[in-house]
Write a structure and sequence with these properties.
single chain, 544 residues, alpha/beta, FAD/NAD(P)-binding domain, eight-stranded mixed beta sheet, five-stranded parallel beta sheet, 20 strands, 31% helix, 16% strand, binds NADP nicotinamide-adenine-dinucleotide phosphate
C-alpha cells in the first residue's frame, strides 16, 4: 500500500516499516490497532513473550487493580465492553491479563507483534528521515516513525545493598515474577518495600508463609480497597452505563470515577468533616484520595486533618502501639505519595508470624547467602521478595540508547529532567512520539492512553494526507509546555516529597534529586491543550 509516510524523492530510502512501536502493553496494542486503520505497515517490538506490559510482568501474589475494573478497560469498542465480564470490582492480575489477551485475539493484534524482542537502541537519521531500531540480538528495523509505548513504571530496580545476588534461596523482584506459582507454605519469607506493590504482596504472602518479615524504610498512607464480586445485577448495570461512566471519567481530575468534593476542609463543622472522612474510608477505591475535600492535597492544614484521621485508623487496627507508630508515616501527609489500597493490610501485623523491621532504626547491612543482615541481627530466609519499585517515568527511556538529530542522546537531553512538548514529542528527536511519556497526564492510565493514542493517530493521519515525513517539536513550544508543567505543579504537596511522582529513586545513580516528572494538572486541562494544538493545525510542531 502506498502511504505518504513511505519514501519520497528527497528522502529516498527503503523502509522496513512505516511505524515501529516499542512495547505491546495497553498503549502499544491500541496504537497498533489505530495505525492499522490508517493503512500503515506497523511492527510492535515486545521484550516479553506475551502482550500486556505491566500486567504481563507484574505477576506477584496479590497483584490487582486499584481503579475500578470497569473504569480501567478499553473504552473504544462498544462490542468489547459488552462482551467482557469483570468478575470483581478490582480484578486480580490474572484476570486482567486474560482480558488483554482477549483484546489481542479479538482484534487480531499478534500478527504485527514480534515477541522476545528487547530494543536496545533507536537512532534517527536526518538525511533519510528514518529511525533504525536495534534489538538485543542485533536485528535491525527501519521505519519512518518511532512510537514509544514503554510505560512509566516498567524499569524495575533492585536495592543497592551489598550482597544482592549472593542469596542462595529464591529471590524475586515483584515486576519480574516467575510464570509458575510460588508456594509460600511453610517458608520463611522476607519482603523489602512497602509501596503499593509491597502492600499487595505482604497481605497475600502473610496468608500462607510460616514466617513473614517486612523490611520497611518509609511507611505509606494506605486506605481500604473494599473489593467485592460483581453480581449479575451489578454486571448488567455496569454494561448499561458504560457511556455515562466513561463520560464521567473524562471530566474528573485524573480520569478516575472519583471527583473531589467542591467543599474546602474547613468549610464544614468538625463533626461533618469526621463523618465525611468515615464515609470515604468505608467506600470502595480511591474516593478517600481523589474524592475528598478539594483542598487536601494543596492546603497543609487541610491535609493535616485527613492525615490525622487515617493515623487514628491505623492505631485502631494495629494492636501493638509501637508497631502502629512504625506504620504511620511521619515525613509526609496523606495522599502526597501514591496511596496504596489495601485489604486487611494493617491487620497482618497482628499475626504472630509477621515481623516488621524498621530499617531506619536497624539498617540493612547486606544480603547474605542465607538471608538479610541488619545492624541488629541476621535473619535467615527461604525467599526474599524485592518490592522495591521502578526507575519511573524516564527510566524505561534511559535503558534504550535513543539518539535524535545529529546523534544527540535522549538521556543527555533530559539530564536535568525531561523536556517535552505535551509529553508526546521531544525537540531534536523528529518522528518519535511517546505514549505515557514524561509530562503527560497519567491518572487512570488506560483513559489517558486512549487519549494519547488518538492524538498521535490524528497527527500521523495529518502527515499522511499532507505528504509530510518529518515532525519535530519547536523549541519555543517545548519551553512553553515545560514551564506550564512546572506551573501547574506549584503548590502541590506531592511535589515536596520524594517518590516516583517526583522522579526520585535511591537505587539509581543520579536520581536522588526531585524533578517535575509528570504533568500534575487535570486531565481535562491536559486534553484541552492538546486538542487546541491539533485544532490550530499543529503550529507548535515543525512539519515537513
Ligand atoms: P514504589 O511505590 O516506588 O515503592 C517501592 C518501595 O520499596 C518503597 O517502600 C521504598 O521505600 C522501598 N525501597 C526501594 N528501595 C529500597 C531500598 N534500597 N531499601 C529499602 N527499601 C527500599 O514502587 P511500587 O510499590 O512498585 O509501586 C510503584 C507504582 O506502581 C505505584 O505507586 C502505583 O502507581 C503502581 N502500582 C499500581 C498498582 C495497582 O494499580 N494495583 C499496584 C502496584 C503498583 P521508600 O519509600 O523509602 O523509598
Amino acid at each position: 500500500m502506498n502511504t505518504a509516510l513511505e519514501a519520497q524523492p528527497a528522502t529516498a530510502a527503503v523502509l522496513d516499516h512505516d511505524v515501529i512501536i516499542i512495547g505491546a502493553g495497553m498503549s502499544g496494542m491500541y496504537q497498533l490497532l489505530r495505525l492499522r486503520q490508517l493503512g500503515l505497515r506497523v511492527l510492535v517490538l515486545e521484550a516479553g513473550s506475551g502482550v500486556g506490559g505491566t500486567w504481563y510482568w507484574n505477576r506477584y501474589p496479590g497483584a490487582r487493580f486499584d481503579s475500578e475494573s470497569y473504569s480501567y478497560g478499553y473504552s473504544f469498542s462498544a462490542e468489547l465492553l459488552q462482551e467482557w465480564n469483570w468478575s470483581e470490582h478490582f480484578a486480580p492480575q490474572a484476570e486482567t491479563l486474560r482480558y488483554i489477551d482477549f483484546v489481542a485475539d479479538k482484534f487480531d493484534l499478534r500478527r504485527d507483534i514480534q515477541f522476545h524482542s528487547r530494543v536496545v537502541s533507536a537512532h534517527y537519521d536526518d538525511a533519510t528521515r528514518r529511525w533504525t531500531t536495534t534489538l538485543e540480538n542485533g536485528e535491525r528495523h527501519t521505519s519512518r516513525l518511532l512510537i514509544t509505548a514503554i510505560g512509566p513504571l516498567s524499569a524495575p530496580t533492585l536495592p543497592r545493598i551489598e550482597g544482592v545476588g549472593s542469596f542462595a534461596g529464591a529471590a524475586y523482584h515483584t515486576a519480574r515474577w516467575p510464570h509458575e506459582k510460588v508456594d509460600f507454605t511453610g517458608k520463611r519469607v522476607a519482603v523489602i518495600g512497602t509501596g503499593s506493590t509491597g502492600v499487595q504482596t505482604i497481605q497475600e504472602v502473610a496468608k500462607t508463609a510460616a514466617q513473614l518479615t517486612v523490611f520497611q524504610r518509609n511507611p505509606n498512607w494506605c486506605a481500604p480497597l473494599h473489593n467485592g464480586p460483581i453480581d449479575a445485577a451489578a454486571q448488567a448495570e455496569i454494561k448499561a452505563n458504560y457511556p455515562a461512566m466513561f463520560a464521567r471519567c473524562r471530566e474528573t481530575f485524573a480520569c478516575f470515577l472519583h471527583t473531589p468534593d467542591p467543599r474546602g476542609t474547613f468549610e464544614v463543622s468538625p463533626a461533618e468533616r469526621e463523618a465525611f472522612f468515615e464515609k470515604l474510608y468505608a467506600e470502595r477505591g480511591f474516593g478517600i484520595w481523589q474524592g475528598n475535600f478539594r483542598d487536601i492535597l494543596t492546603d497543609r492544614a487541610a491535609n493535616a486533618e485527613i492525615t490525622e484521621f487515617v493515623a487514628r485508623k491505623i492505631r485502631e487496627r494495629v494492636r501493638d502501639p509501637a508497631v502502629a507508630e512504625k506504620l504511620i508515616p511521619k515525613n509526609h501527609g496523606f495522599g502526597t505519595r501514591r496511596v496504596p489500597l489495601e485489604t486487611r493490610y494493617y491487620e497482618v501485623y497482628n499475626h504472630p508470624n509477621v515481623l516488621l523491621v524498621d530499617i531506619n532504626e536497624t539498617p540493612i547491612e547486606r544480603i547474605t547467602e542465607t538471608g538479610i543482615k541488619t545492624t541488629d541481627r541476621a535473619y535467615d530466609f527461604d525467599i526474599i521478595i524485592y518490592a522495591t519499585g521502578f526507575d519511573a517515568i524516564t527510566g524505561s527511556f534511559d535503558r534504550i540508547d535513543i539518539r535524535g538529530s545529529d546523534g544527540q542522546r535522549l538521556k543527555d537531553t533530559w539530564s536535568a529532567g525531561p523536556q517535552t512538548f505535551m509529553g508526546v514529542l521531544v525537540e531534536g528527536f523528529p518522528n518519535m512520539f511517546m505514549l505515557m511519556g514524561p509530562h503527560t497526564a497519567l491518572g487512570n492510565i488506560p483513559r489517558s492512553i486512549e487519549y494519547n493514542v488518538d492524538w498521535v493517530t490524528d497527527i500521523v493521519a495529518y502527515m499522511q494526507t499532507h505528504g509530510l515525513t518529518r515532525a519535530d517539536a519547536r523549541p519555543e513550544a517545548v519551553q512553553a509546555w515545560t514551564s506550564h508543567v512546572k506551573a501547574v505543579g506549584t503548590g502541590l504537596l506531592s511535589n515536596e516529597i520524594s517518590s516516583w511522582f517526583t522522579g526520585v529513586n535511591s537505587n539509581v545513580e543520579g536520581k536522588q534529586t526531585r524533578i517535575i516528572a509528570r504533568y500534575s494538572g487535570s486531565a481535562p486541562a491536559y486534553r484541552a491543550w492538546c486538542d487546541d494544538v491539533a485544532a490550530r493545525g499543529y503550529q507548535e510542531i515543525a512539519l515537513a
